[in-house]
Write a structure and sequence with these properties.
The structure holds 2 protein chains of 2 kinds.
Chain A: H1 47-58, E1 60-67, H2 74-81, E2 106-114, E3 117-125, H3 140-157, E4 173-178, H4 187-196, E5 202-206, H5 214-230, H6 245-258, E6 261-262, E7 269-272, E8 275-282, E9 285-288, H7 297-307, H8 309-331
Parallel strand pairs in A: 1-3, 1-4, 4-5, 5-6
Antiparallel strand pairs in A: 2-3, 7-8, 8-9
Chain B: H1 16-27, E1 29-36, H2 43-51, H3 64-67, E2 75-83, E3 86-94, H4 109-127, E4 141-146, H5 155-164, E5 170-174, H6 182-198, H7 215-226, E6 230-231, E7 238-240, E8 246-252, E9 255-258, H8 267-277, H9 279-303, H10 305-313, H11 332-363
Parallel strand pairs in B: 1-3, 1-4, 4-5, 5-6
Antiparallel strand pairs in B: 2-3, 7-8, 8-9
């Protein structure tokens, strides 16, 4: 996103005849002065600035779900990602909570602000996943929740009197926590990702990665990537949704080298070389969370928040949601879903199948 | 022994321990150790570290998709270790597949069955005629690995421990303990101890040291007991710590974990207690307590009225009359298994007879009978 922000927005002047080569601006540039404007400069590049201002006013929603066995550091990681206590977590280690018998879905919302931009962040936790002796179908409550959010959105969308901004509770990103066994994926990991990779953006992460040496990490990652490929599981960023070559090269590098990110989370600070850093202190050294030589937390953060946040939302809306919508409309024979939805009686519509979205 | 009696009041049986020692050195020493726990907790590495072996060189780790349908198997590996003239025949029992599947219900039953089969074998041998060379294949100790990533014992851990705690000496161990900071390790150990108490699981109790031991030893002993479950890190690689002496450990970008450093993990404690001081005691408890308990249960059920019928219907009764009729394991599922095997055997015999008849018919001129 843009860094250097022009303070003022000047309107273009069309009357000057001084030709000056003007490179295509990647960020909105402050026009040097009205006198040096090129003939033909319209000023549509300032649309980015206008959008930015609007976003700042309205803020935006982001919903992130965390899935994984208990104790893999999900809550800590999310708190570290967003530098606030956004995930419920007891401050002491001796949590008296019992493992729930079935998977529960707990969504907690927070509004966080940075640089004038407001984000309504919702963290969706899934306690109980993978903790029982028999974990058959333990992903079903999760799939159900995700589809329910699509349904909610769909219902709002088909309303006659629609809200100006439909509240978006759809899950934009699902962080799946892989246990750092060093061997390979567990059968449960495969099953979960097989079922849900077509429904939501899954970003797999290797949890508590401070238990693997560099060689073990890279071997493990290779094995995981290969297993996912062999089983036809596409994690985010999915190959088929790369929009252009630039995207593709950037995403290829991430897909084939960095992911799944091997992360370490922490909410404690320690003094290292005169600086206070987030980390974990052991008798043999201090693991710094934001040090790329120690773990890939910074890569994950940059990926999810600084570069691909908007794309996560777009893929959710344009692809996953549309798939759901098409299926629902098809099932209903082209009619919008739900009875009594519109509060009025519609004239009977011939049951022609609705053209399906791609 | 063999020394002349130099003092009228010296009888000489103080030399008995030496005699025992010499005999057992000659005989050698066998020990069966089971390691159990989810895969990926460092079990194999720890075993290799403990005994300085390379027992798993030929191991093939299956992929996740293969493990979707894998059932638990019991694998045995034997190795002979010699140190200071003493030979130890160590048998390692591994349980690959434990805790791996999506549905792990009853996945501990094969392990329970295995342990009891060893007891049954011993009981049979003990009751047999040739008792000179009884092979003791009973499991003397089970190292159970608990994940450092959880919040204590998981439901599967509790279920497994409950199923085996009266049948084998359990030493609980926290694997890959370098994932934890010191405070976390303490908290986890306390949580596990509380849970073990709550679930009434009996782990192996290290015996109290004698009251006449010196204070230092007593303190050391108390410290060791307090560090249960042992938080261990295993490694068979030698690394240089900060460029000085070579140590066994794991090298990270932020430091090196030394396996044999008591401030880093409890590996030394575990090795001392398991190998150096309590190997014999583990065998004795297995024999005097656990095996006797099994034997008593067995024989008691034999003495009950219904038991005699069961015993006679079993395949054991088909053995020669000179052997003493042996008690069946009073377990419903083992009986069912034996009955099923009987059925199978009978069906196979029938099939065999049919095939033989068919062959005979086809040799004789005439039409062939229909295939089976």
């Amino acid at each position: 996103m843009s860094k250097g922000l022009p303070e003022t927005r000047t309107d273009a002047a069309m009357s000057e005849l001084v030709p000056e080569p003007r490179p295509k601006p990647a960020v909105p540039m402050k026009p040097v002065s009205i006198n040096s404007n090129l003939l033909g400069y319209i000023g549509i590049d300032t649309i980015i600035e206008q959008m930015r201002k609007k976003t700042m006013k309205t803020g935006f929603d982001f919903n992130i779900m965390v899935v994984g066995q208990s104790g893999l550091g999900k809550s800590t990681l999310v708190n570290t990602l967003f530098k606030s206590q956004v995930s419920r977590k007891a401050s002491s280690w001796n949590r008296e909570e019992k493992i729930p018998k079935t998977v529960e879905i707990k969504a907690i919302g927070h509004v966080i602000e940075e640089g004038g931009v407001k984000m309504k962040l919702t963290v969706i936790d899934t306690p109980g996943f993978g903790d029982q002796i028999n974990n058959e179908n333990c992903w079903e409550p999760i799939e159900k929740y995700i589809n329910e959010q699509y349904e909610k959105f769909l219902k709002e969308e088909v309303n006659i009197a629609r809200k100006k901004r439909i509240p978006d509770t759809r899950v934009h990103c699902c962080l799946y926590f892989i246990s750092p066994t060093g061997h390979s994926l567990r059968p449960l990991d495969l099953e979960f990702m097989k079922h849900l990779s077509k429904v939501v953006n899954i970003v797999p992460v290797i949890a508590k990665a401070d238990t693997m040496t560099l060689e073990e990490k890279s071997e493990f990652k290779q094995r995981v990537r290969k297993e996912l490929e062999v089983n036809g599981i596409e994690f985010y960023p999915q190959k088929e949704f790369d929009e252009d070559l630039e995207d593709k090269t950037e995403n290829d590098k991430i897909r084939q080298e960095s992911m799944p990110f091997a992360v370490v989370g922490s909410d404690k600070e320690y003094q290292v070389n005169g600086k206070r850093v987030l980390g974990r202190k052991t008798p043999w050294g201090i693991i710094e969370v934001e040090n790329l030589n120690h773990c890939e937390f910074a890569l994950l953060r940059d990926f999810v928040i600084r570069t691909h946040l908007q794309d996560l939302k777009e893929v959710t809306h344009n692809i996953h949601y549309e798939t759901y919508r098409a299926k629902r409309l098809n099932d209903n024979g082209g009619l919008p879903p739900g009875e009594g939805l519109l509060g009025t009686v519609l004239p009977p519509v011939p049951a022609t199948p609705c053209p399906t979205a791609e | 022994m063999g020394k002349g009696i130099q003092d009228k009041e010296y009888v000489g049986f103080a030399a008995l321990p030496n005699q025992l020692h010499r005999k057992s050195v000659k005989k050698g020493f066998d020990f069966t150790l089971m390691v159990a726990g989810e895969s990926g907790l460092g079990k194999s590495t720890l075993v290799n570290s403990l005994f300085l072996t390379n027992l798993y060189a030929d191991r093939q780790l299956p992929e996740a998709s293969a493990r979707l349908t894998q059932t638990l198997t019991i694998e045995r590996r034997g190795v002979e270790i010699e140190e200071g003239g003493i030979k130890v025949k160590l048998t390692l029992v591994d349980t690959p597949g434990f805790g791996d599947s999506v549905d792990c219900s009853d996945c501990w039953l094969p392990v329970v069955r295995f342990i009891e089969e060893q007891f049954e074998q011993y009981l049979r041998d003990e009751s047999g005629l040739n008792r000179k060379n009884i092979q003791d294949s009973r499991v003397h100790c089970c190292l159970y690995f608990i994940s450092p990533f959880g919040r204590g014992l998981r439901p599967l851990d509790v279920a497994f421990l409950r199923a085996v705690h009266e049948k084998v000496n359990i030493i609980p161990v926290i694997g890959k303990a370098d994932a934890l900071m010191p405070k976390e390790t303490q908290a986890l150990k306390q949580k596990i101890r509380d849970q073990l108490k709550e679930e009434e699981i009996n782990i192996y109790q290290f015996p109290d040291c004698d009251s006449d031991e010196d204070e230092d030893f007593k303190r050391q002993d108390a410290e060791m007991k307090e560090s249960i479950p042992f938080a261990v890190v295993g490694s068979c690689e030698v690394v240089r710590d900060g460029g000085t002496r070579p140590v066994r450990g794991r090298h990270y970008s932020w430091g090196t974990v030394e396996v044999e450093n008591p401030h880093h993990c409890d590996f030394l404690n575990l090795r001392r207690m398991l190998v150096q001081t309590h190997l014999q005691d583990l065998k004795e408890v297995t024999h005097d307590l656990l095996y006797e308990g099994y034997r008593a249960r067995c024989l008691q059920s034999l003495a009950r009225p219904g038991a005699r019928d069961r015993a006679s219907r079993s395949k054991l009764s088909r053995q020669s009359a000179t052997e003493i009729p042996l008690p069946m394991l009073p377990l419903a599922d083992t009986e069912k298994l034996i009955r099923e095997k009987d059925e199978e055997l009978r069906r196979m015999q029938e099939m065999l007879e049919k095939m033989q008849a068919q062959m005979q018919q086809s040799q004789a001129p005439g039409e062939q009978s229909d295939a089976l």
